[in-house]
UniProtKB/TrEMBL annotation:
This is Class I SAM-dependent methyltransferase. GO terms for biological process: methylation. Keywords: Lipid metabolism, Methyltransferase, S-adenosyl-L-methionine, Transferase. It comes from Serpens gallinarum. Belongs to the CFA/CMAS family. Gene3D superfamilies: Vaccinia Virus protein VP39.
Length: 394
């Protein structure tokens, strides 16, 4: 059977063992740290010209099983695709149309999987977005609380102000802002499962008089400038390139003149916003985030500016997200047995690869994450931002 294995695989000397369906074991390098239990004989031929999408799909569909650290699995998969896969042929392609029904279905697919499943590997507040590590030594729980505080400080929240939280998730930021900064929060989401648990937590913390959460599409937000501040965390990845102008126009119309808008989201590393190469983007689009699209920072800033928002501060948190995802991946790996009782086997395979793969992607600068702070200037061009950032980091 070894004759059917592409010879170049041995030349790579990867710490990988192939355990075949008939019991044979083939080591592709010294001291194997990862074992692929191959169930489908056709996989051997495919390994001669792999892409990250093909490798990931084969695992998700049960054509092989994995033994070994997921971080090492991802590293080996990347080495295989770099050495043997096709050149990066990913192109921007046509931009998808994002209507309300399509976006609602995509959100339900990803976020309505199981609240209990997410709780296994998120922090206690269930903040499903990049954490903030001021020193790099924080626990996940500490870093998520630091992120919530960082967002609130950037928004210069004051007691009695009205905050709009677009894509409020399980309500962690909404509750924190109301509890710690004394603001009134109106949050929206398209996930019914998230909304149900978020409302339960708001009530349990006695915040129902200050936090209102609704199932609402951002396109249905009022355009009357009723909010003092607007925050959007991990939301604009679902908007789509074609709707970025509409999205930022909606945020502009929702905030009062002089008010701040903070957009926290994953951004592409290529200026044309093409998917991550060698099939990684295709895998995520097929199995994890249907219809998701990542704009480049320059595109996001351009669209914000075109809609009247003045960008006043930008911060990259790429390595913060790599560390966050590593925490999430490790947490999931530590709870695999319990996770298997909450979601289907295929879903668990998807999430194992997704979390470990994204940690690797952020570490290697395949994708980035930016917090972009903007203001809706008053008619005379004024706003009330301080003259320095000392209040954020002092």
């Amino acid at each position: 059977m070894q004759a059917h294995l592409p010879p170049v695989l041995h030349e790579l000397r990867l710490p990988l063992r192939l355990r075949l369906w008939d019991g044979q074991e083939l080591d592709l390098g010294p001291n194997p740290r990862v074992t692929l239990d191959v169930h489908d004989p056709t996989l051997l031929t495919q390994l001669g010209r792999p892409s990250l999408d093909a490798l990931g799909s084969a695992y998700v569909e049960g054509r092989f099983d994995l033994q070994g650290p997921l971080s090492e699995v991802i590293r080996i998969g990347d080495a295989l695709s770099r050495a043997l896969g096709a050149e990066n042929e990913t192109a921007p392609g046509e931009r998808e149309e994002h209507d309300k029904a399509t976006d609602a279905a995509a959100i339900a697919y990803h976020y309505d999987l199981s609240n209990d499943f997410y709780a296994l590997w998120l922090d206690p507040q269930m903040v499903y977005s990049c954490a903030y590590f001021p020193t790099g030594t924080e626990t996940l729980e500490q870093a998520q609380l630091a992120k919530l505080r960082h967002l609130c400080l950037k928004l210069r929240l004051k007691p009695g102000e009205r905050l709009l939280d677009v894509g409020c998730g399980w309500g962690g930021l909404a509750r924190y802002a109301a509890r710690e900064f004394g603001v009134e929060v109106y949050g929206i989401t398209l996930s019914k499962e998230q909304l149900s648990l978020a409302r339960q937590r708001v009530e349990a913390e006695g915040l129902s008089d200050r936090v209102q959460l609704e199932l609402l599409d951002y396109r249905d937000l009022p355009a009357d400038g009723r909010f003092d501040k607007v925050v959007s965390v991990g939301m604009f990845e679902h908007v789509g390139h074609a709707n970025l102008g509409l999205y930022f126009r909606t945020l502009f119309n929702a905030v009062k003149p002089g008010g701040l808008v903070l957009n926290h989201g994953i951004t592409a590393c290529t200026t044309d916003g093409r998917p991550v190469g060698r099939g990684a983007g295709e895998f995520i689009g097929r199995y994890v985030f249907p219809h998701g699209e990542l704009p480049h920072l320059a595109t996001a800033i351009a669209r914000m500016s075109e809609e009247g928002l003045e960008v006043v501060d930008v911060e990259s948190l790429r390595l913060h997200y790599a560390r966050t995802l590593r925490f999430w991946s490790d947490n999931l790996e530590a709870h695999l047995e319990q996770a298997a009782t909450l979601v289907a086997e295929k879903s668990l395979r998807i999430w194992r690869l997704y979390l470990a793969g994204c940690a690797y992607g952020f570490e290697n600068n395949w994708i980035n994450l930016h917090q972009i702070l903007a203001v809706r200037p008053r008619a005379d061009g004024s706003h009330d931002l301080p003259w320095s950032r000392a209040d954020l980091y002092g």
